[in-house]
Amino acid sequence: MIELEGLPELVDPVLIAAFEGWNDAGEASSGVIAHLETEWKATELASFDPEDYYDFQVTRPIVEMGDGLTRSITWPTTRLSVARPPGSNRDVVLLRGIEPNMRWRSFCEEIILVCRELGVELAVLLGALLNDSPHTRPVPIVGAATDEGLARAINLELTRYEGPTGIVGVLQQAFGTAGLPAVSLWASVPHYVAQPPNPKATLALLSRMEDLLDIPMPLGDLAEEARAWEHGVDELAAQDTEVADYVRELEERKDATQLPEASGDAIAAEFERYLRRRDRGSDS
Q: Which residues cross the membrane (predicted)?
């Protein structure tokens, strides 16, 4: 169990969470949390006892060398940290971990208990899945919410996925059962280039969260990294005619189903994002 004594009093906190593993194609969603921890200089709050939730023969600890003589063990776990984003008047709790191997319901209950103690008002759960989306087009973001009203309020394109789920899906349902609003956002990662990292998908999740939370998201070098990633995939595809033909087929299929009004909405959202960033820059 997490030690709850000494947790700080936060201002209107929101939780942003992601898990490595099945829910994290291209490490796009865990990459969001790692990026925000660095950019916001997050302070670690607590970590889960790995003995409770991990099978160390499945998710093995990592041995590292310190000064060339001493060795340390890093155990698989889930960690909580907190940050106050520049330009925001609310705190953000960041949760990053590895999908647990066992006792998922107890794991979710513990997360909800901590969120109640911290006063979390909304949970945003991030995931990434392999899909047949072309790497040359904007990254599709779909999601789910604990109730239809919340989904409509944030203009969320709902996923229609049915099938095996991971800890993100289980945790979202647990939040809903506990009466805490939660939203999950899923980025589509091209299945033909699944190896991490995928900065383009990470950037897409960050941009969608900025719209959702109205909190300025630091992009750092992600835009440049996303362009370099796409250029690199272009070069690899060009070397294999079958892959190049497949990408063109995906592009044609995507373009044929892309409604004009959907494109207009995307352009409008990007323009509003630009205006918000410009206004924040002029205030500083």
A: none
DSSP 68: S
pTM: 0.87
Q: What is the pLDDT along the chain (284 residues), one digit of tens a residue?
A: 666 566 788 999 999 999 999 999 999 999 999 999 999 999 999 999 999 999 999 999 998 887 767 688 889 999 999 999 998 899 999 999 999 999 999 999 999 999 999 999 999 999 999 999 999 999 999 999 998 888 887 888 888 878 889 999 999 999 999 999 999 999 999 999 999 999 999 999 999 999 899 898 999 999 999 999 999 999 999 898 998 999 999 998 888 876 544 555 555 555 555 555 556 555 54
* Cβ count near 216 (within 10 Å): 16
| Spatial distance between the Cα atoms of 211 and 270, rounded to a whole number of angstroms | 9
46 - beta bridge partners?
A: 80
Which residues make beta-bridge pairs with 185? Answer: 126, 143
| DSSP per-residue letters across 204-230 | HHHHHHHHHH--PPP-TTHHHHHHHHH
SS3 state of residue 165: coil
H-helix or E-strand spanning residue 80: strand 78-83
Strands, DSSP E only, in 112-247?
Answer: 122-131, 141-145, 182-190
- Residue 164 CA to chain centroid, in angstroms? 19
